[in-house]
Specification:
The structure is a single chain. Strands 3-4-5-6 form a 4-stranded antiparallel beta sheet, with no helix packed on it. A two-stranded antiparallel sheet has the order 1-2. The chain has 3 helices and 6 strands. β4 and β5 form a beta hairpin. Helices cover about 20% and strands about 25% of the residues. It has 2 domains: about 100 residues, no CATH class; about 70 residues, no CATH class. The chain is an alpha+beta fold and about 180 residues long.
């Protein structure tokens, strides 16, 4: 499944959120990629430079970490920009004996700490999406695109972003 979501408030007006999920896809990964808009006036950039997209990449599974991809000014007087990566990865040996997710949740539950639990308004809003999809299916309005196992989903998911001039960022390879 792929979807484009819009949040109807002043802060997020016009900002599309694209989600993609499925079973038996090419890679099992949970990742958030935030693509920043390019500024209209680009300092330290000439037509001969290759300008990369500024991204914030948050890896949740399988490798926890965060990477900020930026265009920075090259040191010196050339006035050129270069791609810069700032990365934090949570793969150190110190985390080898950390509790599993469910152990942590059970412990938080015993302490009465609801920080890592969904609040009712979040659950209710999630069901709003699911109910809409269920109603459409029950009325025979199913445009469900089928995809072959081992791929990253149907062509329709790529078309959804292409229509807005975007593409899916890779979930397993380094971002180019």
């Amino acid at each position: 499944m792929a979807a484009k979501l819009l949040i109807d408030n002043h802060r997020w007006a016009g900002v599309p959120f694209y989600i993609r999920t499925g079973k038996r896809m090419k890679a099992k990964s949970t990742k958030i990629v935030i693509e920043f808009k390019n500024r209209p006036m680009k300092l330290y950039y000439s037509e001969n430079d290759e300008l990369k997209t500024n991204l914030l990449e948050i890896n949740i599974q399988p490798d926890e970490g965060i990477t900020l991809h930026l265009n920075g000014k090259k040191v010196g007087s050339s006035g050129k920009s270069i791609p810069v990566e700032l990365t934090y990865s949570n793969d150190s040996d110190a985390s080898a004996n950390t509790p599993e997710a469910y152990e942590r949740l059970i412990y938080d539950c015993m302490l009465g700490d609801a920080t890592n639990f969904a609040h009712w308004d979040e659950v209710d809003l999630s069901w709003t999406y699911i109910d809409t999809i269920s109603k459409a299916w029950s009325h025979g309005h199913s445009d469900l695109a089928i995809y072959e196992s081992g791929t990253m989903g149907p062509q329709a998911s790529d078309d959804l972003l292409a229509k807005d001039g975007f593409k899916w960022w890779p979930v397993i390879d380094d971002i180019d």
